[in-house]
Design brief:
By secondary structure, the chain is an all-beta fold. The protein is built from no helices and 11 strands.
């Protein structure tokens, strides 16, 4: 059974930090690129950060560059998102995503999400 279990969300004041964790099971972790997405209230889901299988290719949403860091540990089947200097506009449900591509088909899994709220 495939599972992506996110944790680490919560309430934080502006300028604060949170570290999200995604624990994966039930699939070959090293076949999948991993990403964090977020969906603010009333808005569409957007990709925040992505990391390749080896960890050598990393991309960030422009608005989080310099504040967020994605990392992965293939031996632990875990992905993290370190978030610093948080802003109210970072408030969203954050989702872990695993994706792979084969014969022009995309195969992906989603977690249930963890809520991040930035406020005073």
């Amino acid at each position: 059974q495939v599972q992506l279990v996110e944790s680490g969300g919560g309430f934080v004041q502006p300028g604060g930090s949170l570290r999200l964790r995604c624990a994966a099971s039930g699939f070959i972790f090293t076949d999948y690129a991993m990403s964090w997405y977020r969906q603010p209230p009333g808005k569409e889901r957007e990709q925040v950060a992505a990391i390749s299988v080896s960890g050598t290719n990393i991309n960030y949403l422009d608005s989080v560059k310099g504040r967020f860091t994605i990392s992965r540990d293939n031996s632990e089947r875990t992905v993290w998102l370190q978030m610093s200097s948080l802003k109210p506009e970072d408030t969203a449900m954050y989702y872990c995503n695993a994706a792979t591509w084969e014969n022009d088909q995309t195969y992906q899994y989603w977690g249930q999400g963890t809520q991040v709220t930035v406020g005073s």
